[in-house]
Amino acid sequence: MTADTHPDLPAPNSEATIGFIGAGNMASAIIAGLISANWPAHKIYASNPSLPKLERLTQKFNIKTTQSNQALAEQVDILVLAVKPQKLADVCSQIKSVDLSHKLIISVAAGWPIQRIEQNLQQQLAVVRTMPNTPAFVGEGASGLFANSRVNQQQKRITETIFNAIGTTSWIAAEAQMDTVTAIAGSSPAYFFLMMESMITAAVQAGMSEKTAFELITQAMKGAATLAQSTPNKSLEQLRKEVTSPGGTTAAAIASFKSNEFEDIVRKAVDASIQRGKELGQLN
Ligand SMILES: NC(=O)c1ccc[n+]([C@@H]2O[C@H](COP(=O)([O-])OP(=O)(O)OC[C@H]3O[C@@H](n4cnc5c(N)ncnc54)[C@H](OP(=O)(O)O)[C@@H]3O)[C@@H](O)[C@H]2O)c1
Questions:
Q1: Residue 36 confidence class, pLDDT cut points 50, 70, 90
Q2: Which atom of ligand 1 approaches the CA of 134 most closely?
Q3: Given Cys at both, which of 25, 144, 204, 207 links 181, Cβ 3.0 to 4.6 Å?
Q4: Which residues bind NADPH (predicted)?
Q5: 9 pLDDT exceeds 90?
Q6: Domain 2-181's class?
Q7: Whose CA is nearest to atom 31 of ligand 1?
Q8: How far is the CA of 26 from the centre of ligand 1 (A)?
């Protein structure tokens, strides 16, 4: 897997229309990113069963909306499936009569293999399966992308443009690795939140105000990630050792982590997430 960061977004394909089935949190985040990246609003569509979400999107971004998934699927060149996994079978049965063979299908639905999407749509299609994460809501997402063999280079580039609008993108070599993407990127903001919550609890117990602890800890985590990304010539181990003077305060904390088998705790958690992803994939 290679991280592929594009600070300068390529110009969106001004000819392409993009439509989102499901106008919830993830669709709204991607639409906001596309608008910021100068994708023409009149080439963005969204469909949703209830009106309020569509009205909000129209008011905020002036995009086109409809309550008909079928009308949207007929209209657009790029179709983003942005409903909860348990709703995807219904959506597929509503749009399967539309000829989707010349369109790019992008799924953000967790746990749905591409083959199952094609089976439900009863067509062989160019499909990209993606797994973004919640930092996408502030333009700092990390999205894993997997394309089937029918997706061409231009469609890959346009997928990168779309997901680079909400953060960074990494192409995944094998679809089976999407469960790992979920475990280390889709779910991992929660692990980092847990780490920060635990550190705030410790700081408050040591007498610090929660507000000050929050400010220091969130900035330290953000700063550590930025430092790691901006010094690719140094390994994470090297960066860690640079903070860790022998016999010092950091060394005491690291020794405590190690004696409590921190690495084993993390490995087991990631394995548990991968395993659960596989189970959910079979249930869908
Ligand atoms: N949020 C994340 O962090 C995240 C990360 C990675 C992937 N994803 C994936 O992104 C997808 C969407 O997640 P989300 O967080 O955006 O969920 P969400 O906020 O609940 O949005 C889903 C939207 O789909 C609409 N919907 C339900 N049935 C529909 C139908 N038959 N046709 C069209 N629209 C329909 C819902 O409308 P109503 O509310 O009116 O029913 C809702 O607006 C999920 O598959 C999830 O696995 C989410």
A1: very high
A2: 3
A3: 144
A4: 69
A5: no
A6: alpha beta
A7: 91
A8: 7
